[in-house]
Write a structure and sequence with these properties.
Blueprint lengths: L4 E3 L6 H5 L14 H10 L5 E8 L2 E9 L13 E7 L8 H15 L4 E6 L7 H7 L2 E7 L2 E7 L5
Parallel strand pairs: 4-5
Antiparallel strand pairs: 1-2, 2-3, 3-4, 5-7, 6-7
Length: 156
C-alpha cells in the first residue's frame, strides 16, 4: 500500500509543490497547482482546503477541497473535491487511491456524509478512476463537467 502524507503548503515548499505537473495530455482535465492557488484566492467562500501530497520527502501530488461549506447556487458541498492531481512520473502507483482514502477519513471524521466532485468527460478523463473508487454520476452537468457523488456511508 502506498504511504502518503498530506502536508500544509508553506513558503518553504510552495515552489516544489507548484512544480508537480500532470502529463501534457491531462492538462485539459485538471488545473495546475498554481492555478489552484489562484482559484482558491478568488473563491474564499468556497472554503478551500488544500495540501501537498508527499511520499517521504518528495512531493507527488496535490489535493484541494471545499471544506464544510454551506452549499449555494454557485457552490457545491458541503465537501467538494475541487482538485486532485498526481505528478506525471508518479502516476499508476496507487497515489490517487491513497489520497482519496486519506481525504475520506478526514472528512468523515468531520461529519461528512458524502463527497462530491466533477470532471470533464472525454478520452483521458479521470472519470473512470473516480467510478472505480465508488463515485457515481448524479445526472447533473455543471459547466460541461459531469458531477459525481461518493456516499461515505458505503465506504469502509
Amino acid at each position: 500500500m502506498t504511504q502518503i502524507r498530506l502536508v500544509e503548503i508553506t513558503d518553504a515548499n510552495r515552489d516544489e509543490v507548484i512544480a508537480v505537473r500532470v502529463r501534457p495530455d491531462q492538462e485539459q482535465f485538471v488545473a495546475s497547482v498554481e492555478k489552484s492557488f489562484l482559484d482558491a484566492a478568488k473563491e474564499p467562500d468556497a472554503k478551500p482546503w488544500f495540501r501537498a501530497v508527499y511520499d517521504g520527502e518528495e512531493p507527488v501530488g496535490f489535493v484541494m477541497l471545499s471544506w464544510n461549506l454551506v452549499p449555494g447556487p454557485d457552490l457545491r458541498g458541503p465537501y467538494f473535491l475541487w482538485r486532485l492531481l498526481i505528478g506525471a512520473e508518479h502516476q499508476k502507483r496507487g497515489y490517487g487511491t491513497a489520497i482519496l482514502d486519506e481525504v475520506v477519513a478526514l472528512i468523515r471524521a468531520d461529519g461528512a456524509k458524502e463527497l462530491i466532485t466533477s470532471c470533464v468527460p472525454g478520452d483521458g478523463s479521470p472519470e473512470p478512476f473516480y467510478r472505480r473508487y465508488g463515485f457515481v454520476p448524479t445526472g447533473e452537468v455543471d459547466d460541461g463537467e459531469i458531477v459525481l457523488k461518493l456516499d461515505l456511508s458505503s465506504r469502509r
